[in-house]
Amino acid sequence: MLWAWERPEDLEFLDPQRFGVAFLAQTLVLQNDQVVYRPRRQPLKLAPQTKLIAVTRIESQKTTGKQVALSDSQKDGVAGFVIKTLELPNILGIQIDFDAAASERSFYRSLLEEVRRQLPPNKSLSITALASFCLGDRWLEDLPVDEAVPMIFRMGADDRAIRNSLQLGDDFREPLCRHSYGLAIDEPVDMKFDRSRRLYFFASHAWTEKDLSSLPAVLQR
Predict the structure, then answer these.
(1) How far apart are CA 180 and CA 194, in angstroms?
(2) Are strands 21-31 and 34-39 parallel, antiparallel or unpaired?
(3) Angle subtended by helix axes 72-84 and 105-118, to nearest 10
(4) Kind and range of the H or E run holding 111
(5) What is the pLDDT of residue 170?
(6) How far is CA 40 from CA 6, 25, 37, 61, in A?
């Protein structure tokens, strides 16, 4: 799966039998007791049969600096926007990208429970997760999601400790993080990969066909 963020992307060169696309469908900003909806505004070109995951980015006090009520009405509003992305064509499932602060975790869990309740059984629900959460933090335990994608890039202060742990052969302690890997094409990771897991790739620029040839190098097997 290639992550396609908020920028023009022409991915018609992808082989739909080998690659899917997790694309930013919308951004939802929590402000006071409101949910501000920002749709994707950049074009995304795809081969007709490309399988897709619709990604919703949630921003709140941690990213905006503004007070957030974290109310039931906000939860219901966000859930409604997330479920609506299933109306787009070729959607395999949905993914939520929310850098929830510790004070927002209860709200996030409640939101995921509501999304799961409304989600058709044939659609998947995934979230992105800091790699540090997958290794040592227990708050992801028992979340009602199919996968938590550990983002093994842009890890900040935890970068060296996490890389050392992975290089030693340690796996993620959280079972939800053992279904996939989130990688960046400009940050090779020296670790043993479980080939049965789904791979998500991030690029800091618009994807090109040449980028695909660099993917094996990222894994450094």
Answers:
(1) 9
(2) antiparallel
(3) 50
(4) helix 105-118
(5) 87
(6) 7, 5, 10, 21
